Amino acid sequence: MLEGIICPNCGANINEMDLRDKLACTNCKKDLKDRSYLDFLEYLMTNGIVEKELSVQTVVQTLTKWIFVTNSLAQFVRKILRIVVILIFLNTL
Fold first, then answer.
1. What one-character DSSP code corresponds to residue 31?
2. Dihedrals φ, ψ of 4, to 5°?
3. pLDDT in tens, 43-56
4. Domain boundaries, the chain
Protein backbone atom coordinates (compact mmCIF):
# COMPACT_ATOMS: atom_id res chain seq x y z
CA MET A 1 0.00 0.00 0.00
CA LEU A 2 1.34 3.38 -0.98
CA GLU A 3 1.24 6.28 1.42
CA GLY A 4 0.70 9.88 0.52
CA ILE A 5 -1.51 9.68 -2.55
CA ILE A 6 -2.57 13.27 -3.06
CA CYS A 7 -5.51 14.47 -5.12
CA PRO A 8 -4.20 16.44 -8.10
CA ASN A 9 -7.26 18.68 -7.92
CA CYS A 10 -7.58 19.70 -4.25
CA GLY A 11 -4.38 18.37 -2.63
CA ALA A 12 -6.17 16.20 -0.08
CA ASN A 13 -4.83 12.78 0.90
CA ILE A 14 -6.67 9.93 -0.81
CA ASN A 15 -6.92 6.41 0.57
CA GLU A 16 -5.70 3.79 -1.92
CA MET A 17 -8.75 1.60 -1.25
CA ASP A 18 -11.07 4.50 -2.08
CA LEU A 19 -9.34 4.88 -5.46
CA ARG A 20 -9.72 1.17 -6.15
CA ASP A 21 -13.48 1.46 -5.60
CA LYS A 22 -14.04 4.66 -7.58
CA LEU A 23 -11.51 6.82 -9.37
CA ALA A 24 -12.63 10.05 -7.68
CA CYS A 25 -11.41 12.16 -4.79
CA THR A 26 -13.28 11.52 -1.56
CA ASN A 27 -12.71 15.15 -0.52
CA CYS A 28 -13.58 17.26 -3.58
CA LYS A 29 -15.52 14.49 -5.44
CA LYS A 30 -13.59 15.28 -8.66
CA ASP A 31 -13.66 12.51 -11.28
CA LEU A 32 -9.95 11.75 -11.73
CA LYS A 33 -10.42 10.07 -15.11
CA ASP A 34 -10.20 13.52 -16.68
CA ARG A 35 -7.58 14.06 -19.39
CA SER A 36 -5.88 16.76 -17.35
CA TYR A 37 -4.87 14.10 -14.80
CA LEU A 38 -3.11 11.76 -17.23
CA ASP A 39 0.15 11.92 -15.21
CA PHE A 40 -1.76 10.99 -12.06
CA LEU A 41 -3.47 8.07 -13.84
CA GLU A 42 -0.12 6.91 -15.16
CA TYR A 43 1.26 6.97 -11.61
CA LEU A 44 -1.70 4.91 -10.35
CA MET A 45 -1.29 2.37 -13.16
CA THR A 46 2.44 2.06 -12.57
CA ASN A 47 1.88 1.33 -8.89
CA GLY A 48 -0.95 -1.15 -9.49
CA ILE A 49 -3.64 0.92 -7.83
CA VAL A 50 -5.87 1.14 -10.91
CA GLU A 51 -6.89 -2.12 -12.55
CA LYS A 52 -5.61 -2.73 -16.06
CA GLU A 53 -9.11 -2.94 -17.58
CA LEU A 54 -10.16 0.37 -16.05
CA SER A 55 -6.90 1.96 -17.13
CA VAL A 56 -7.28 0.94 -20.77
CA GLN A 57 -10.90 2.10 -20.74
CA THR A 58 -9.85 5.43 -19.25
CA VAL A 59 -7.11 5.90 -21.83
CA VAL A 60 -9.48 5.12 -24.72
CA GLN A 61 -12.11 7.52 -23.38
CA THR A 62 -9.48 10.21 -22.96
CA LEU A 63 -8.20 9.68 -26.50
CA THR A 64 -11.74 9.98 -27.84
CA LYS A 65 -12.19 13.31 -26.05
CA TRP A 66 -8.84 14.60 -27.34
CA ILE A 67 -9.91 13.94 -30.92
CA PHE A 68 -12.57 16.62 -30.53
CA VAL A 69 -10.73 19.20 -28.42
CA THR A 70 -7.17 19.26 -29.78
CA ASN A 71 -6.49 22.12 -32.16
CA SER A 72 -2.87 21.24 -32.94
CA LEU A 73 -2.05 18.12 -34.92
CA ALA A 74 1.44 17.94 -33.36
CA GLN A 75 -0.03 18.13 -29.86
CA PHE A 76 -2.55 15.42 -30.70
CA VAL A 77 0.18 13.13 -32.09
CA ARG A 78 2.30 13.60 -28.93
CA LYS A 79 -0.69 12.61 -26.80
CA ILE A 80 -1.36 9.54 -28.94
CA LEU A 81 2.28 8.45 -28.61
CA ARG A 82 2.09 8.87 -24.85
CA ILE A 83 -1.02 6.68 -24.77
CA VAL A 84 0.68 4.04 -26.91
CA VAL A 85 3.57 3.93 -24.41
CA ILE A 86 1.09 3.48 -21.54
CA LEU A 87 -0.72 0.69 -23.38
CA ILE A 88 2.57 -1.09 -24.12
CA PHE A 89 3.45 -0.83 -20.44
CA LEU A 90 0.07 -2.27 -19.42
CA ASN A 91 0.50 -5.22 -21.75
CA THR A 92 3.85 -6.08 -20.18
CA LEU A 93 2.37 -6.43 -16.67
1. B
2. 80, 30
3. 887 777 776 555 66
4. 34-91
